[in-house]
């Protein structure tokens, strides 16, 4: 899923300077699962904003709403009524959701309440880790199911650099060395031959380097 | 290894002649003053066969490796231009390889590069379009096939003696010799190892290297760094990733009176070189006297490596 982290409260307050009536718009997708942009977080942030603005003697009116997903026009449409009543929408979706909202509600400022951080999963409740960098050409077959592009700090494709120490990355002792994990796994899978062959230079066109990407299911385009 | 020279550099000639090679290192300044390099060069001249010019080492901005290498050549010395994958994509890398070769640079060292987190611009976007092994292969392809990565023909292929680094002390240990094999397969001509302090572990690695026959396919230069003080030894032991300083060496430095520690550091370096000379498969030594260039000559002298041969 897409992981997002809430922006610092002061930054959000600054975005809303001069605005008297807003909607705080949650998203029922990934950010609900990672506990940063769903129904509950909409309530908490809205209360915080009301209290802070009351304290300034500059109250703000807030409509709280959470859509099924903000990255899907069908659900974005459902914000129409709310959108017509407010001066701005503070979206608690990921960056994709914020932009889908902005594309639909062209006359309304849509502000992001989250920083979209990475594609990953939860190791346990409230603990999320990056696993995929969406390079567009999955190499997990060669690397024992562990991605060197997302998980090696230098995205090295042919083995660990000289800074791998006791299974940890040189840039932070809390980060596992991806290549240590890959090699351990290749060994247990009896696939060490995959390490000895050289991984060719990557074609980054499938990555963002090839420009903004799209995926089209032709059979649905009729 | 064939009879023909890959680049005809002095380093290549010394290694090919079977003589024990010596390389040194020269870090470019944090400014545009060429005089700083000239001064370092005057300390290093004739003390080694060739000298690595680092490429923004530890991710701290310095004068570029290519221009520093040219200033060194103007002093009648031979540089090994380092190039890291951190700061350049394949377009810039190939362009700089052509430029370096056109300016007369004949040795190049291919590195991944320290992560920018360690440097003075941790906010920077890193590149790592290629990794060090792919970089080796790129230079080889440009030199031997006369082709760019695109497959298009190069008019005037760059003649470079291709180097790389090898760290026998990083983890996982068991793939460190196979990793060298990958670099050999990619086309490396010589490697310089990480600073050797743990001789026992180094010899264990060398045994694997020799068993795999790699020493017959690549020239291996052992890395040696003299301790300036106990403080530096402790720093390297605790703060430099991939560095292995055994306790007994630390104790030896600690038990030496402060005013004699520099001398002891040099003695240890000379002892290490002697051990390397007796190690099967070692073709030379890479002396990295970090911001202590004036000692390279003394170390080489005491190890019996001077004068350097005329090739």
Brief summary:
Chain A has 222 residues and is an alpha/beta fold.
Structure description:
- The complex is a heterodimer of chains A (222) and B (311).
- With 222 residues, chain A is α/β, with parallel strands linked by helices.
- In chain A, 29% of the residues lie in helices and 23% in strands.
- In chain A, the strands form 3 sheets. Chain A has a 4-stranded parallel sheet, with helices on both faces. A 3-stranded antiparallel sheet of chain A has the order 1-6-7.
- In chain A, a hairpin with a 2-residue loop joins strand 6 (114-124) and strand 7.
- The radius of gyration of chain A is 22 Å and the shape is elongated.
- In chain A, 37% of the residues are buried.
- Chain B has 311 residues and is of the alpha/beta class.
- Chain B has an 8-stranded parallel beta barrel with strand order 1-2-3-4-5-6-7-8, surrounded by 7 helices.
- Chain B is built from 11 helices and 8 strands.
- Chain B has helices at residues 10-16, 34-44, 65-74, 90-102, 132-145, 176-186, 199-211, 230-239, 247-254, 261-277, 296-302; strands spanning 21-26, 50-53, 79-84, 107-111, 161-166, 190-195, 219-224, 284-287.
- Chain B is globular, with a radius of gyration of 19 Å.
- Chains A and B meet through helix 8 of A and helix 5 and helix 6 of B.
Question: Describe the biggest sheet of chain A?
Answer: 4 strands, parallel
Overall 3D shape of chain A: elongated
Going by CATH, the architecture of chain B would be Alpha-Beta Barrel
Number of domains of chain B: 1
Structural topology:
The complex is a heterodimer of chains A (222) and B (311).
Chain A (H helix, E strand, L loop, with lengths): L1 E5 L2 H7 L5 E7 L2 H4 L5 H17 L5 E7 L5 H4 L3 H4 L4 E4 L3 H10 L5 E3 L1 E11 L2 E6 L15 H4 L16 E2 L2 E5 L1 H11 L4 H4 L26
Chain B lengths: L9 H7 L4 E6 L7 H11 L5 E4 L11 H10 L4 E6 L5 H13 L4 E5 L20 H14 L15 E6 L9 H11 L3 E6 L3 H13 L7 E6 L5 H10 L7 H8 L6 H17 L6 E4 L8 H7 L9
Parallel strand pairs in B: 1-2, 1-8, 2-3, 3-4, 4-5, 5-6, 6-7, 7-8
